[in-house]
Amino acid sequence: MGNDTAQKTSDRVRRAIMTFVATGGLGSQIGNHTDQVVEQLGRAIVAGEYPPETMIPLDPDISEMFDVSRTVVREAKKTLIAKGLIQSKAKVGTHVRPASEWNMFDPDVLRWHAALNNQRPFLEDLFEIRLIFEPAAAGSAAKRATDAECVTLSKLCDNLASGKDRAAVAVADLEFHKMILKLSGNRFLQSLGDLVQAALYSLFIAEANERNDQETYEFVERHRAIVTAIKAGDAKAAHDAMVAVILAGRKIDLNI
Q1: What is the pTM of this model?
Q2: In angstroms, rounded to a whole number, what is the distance separating the alpha carbons of residues 254 and 232?
Q3: Please, which residues have CB within 8 angstroms of residue 237's CB and are 6 or more apart in sequence?
């Protein structure tokens, strides 16, 4: 039963991150001309090519840049406005909004940040929010998880240890953390995991690439400690074990 649940979770996660792992090119991300303009302008804004408070090109110029109609440009701008990246004013033009006003839970905005060359500010924010909600979720899971659900968590830990490659380990890591959020019993936390899963995958695969065999063993054992605490119904131990897992990842990703 636990293996079947873990496999279904794995399949769902793999489907969910296909978009993320394909971002080396436009590929399936670009279904039409509007999507292409959104993708290119969004990436450019997040990368700082158009800094906050500066104007983006005028509609006729964007139309020429991408060889699209002005209708396409207008639709693309509406999408970027909805993501919080730009603001348009009549007779003034369209300017980039401050980064503090961007919708960081928008999947595209997260994905564009995860693709940055200088990810440090983004990663610092991501680790900070993880330390706020994931330990709390682990503590809640310790009060709610059934024996069968603990078996599923243990299986996910086994997958962390036996992953055939770095990508498989990263997927298993993502599955584990999303399962903890689910077991918290809080629908908001579960939705939060769905929102940030692409960014988490980028973290986990980067961490997997940096670990040697001994570090991988310690990494798996830290996750097993979470399962042990949840199985024992020890909310504080589960909370603290999750903090240890996140801080260990933070040390790798931020080189601290």
Answers
A1: 0.79
A2: 33
A3: 142, 225, 228, 229
